[in-house]
Amino acid sequence: MVKAIEWKDGKVIMLDQSRLPIEVKFIECTDYQIIAEGIKKLWIRGAPAIGIAAAMGISLGAQDIRAENFDEFMERLEPIFNTMLSTRPTAVNIKWAVERIRSVLIGRRGESVDRLKEVLIEEANKILDEDIEVNKAIGRWGAQFIKDGDTILTHCNAGSLATGGYGTATAPILIAIEQGKKIQVIADETRPVLQGARLTAWELMQEGIPVTLITDSSAGALMKSGEIDLCIVGTDRTARNGDVANKIGTYTVAVLCREHDIPFYVAAPLSSIDFSISFGELIPIEERGPEEVTHIFGKCQIAPDGVKVKNMAFDVTPHRYVTAIITEKGAFRPRDLKKLMRDNVNLDELRLKP
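-> structure tokens emitted (354 positions)
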């Protein structure tokens, strides 16, 4: 399984996903600014993966800080926090990673600055390791909704490339195959950056999983002809009521699934659920440059000079279109997400059964 990011020998090694599948190139990041650039330019993408990248970027930047005490160290970390937070506004995992790291440091304020630098490296790697285990748990809960012989539609990329490993939306697929189920995957291309064509199709082929690539506009026709049994997507941020922000085009797929009575599942680590936001309209939606729409790979122009472009990177799917949100704690109806905030909640009573 290809690693999207890892800490190695005092550097962060990042797979440049913008070059896939034409070229497999790893970038050695020696300072946090390179990691921030990588997040902005989609060298690394996917909510869990960029949360890991942010944590590693903070850890990397901290190694160069010269400070005499805790307060001075935290003061000099603040610009690094802000740099990471400014890279991509929609995905909540960056904010989650920053808050987690801040909390860990505050809890160890009595330790030396040198030790705090070591703690940051340990915490970043811990976030990576935990993400892999979370994804496997998502896979185990999600696989129960996949039957032998199913054909699964995916949108964008929520596989190992978008996480620490194993993926979110692809984890149930991998577990189902391990269970001996014979399944097929249909990956839509996911314009304008083609994460489905470039990344999902590539990584599924690396795993030997049967995959068919389609244009985004083909999904409805395939649903109508009975060729899709269920859809599983990831998420960059989910509101407390179960509204889901994911790659642009997700809303369209969800509406098509509802029209054709096809289950629409969202694979979401709990870290990507923003319980501070009550509904999806409050989620900030990133808009990106026009060249992603007017050009392919920034080189081949496909639109007339000067045409106006609106390039939203994400859309929000209302919770009423979501069959279940599959987390590491189980699969839940969107309306039940807010109940997870309660103390002593009975998860068995809340979990959606297949």
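Residues 62 and 153 are 42 Å apart (CA to CA).
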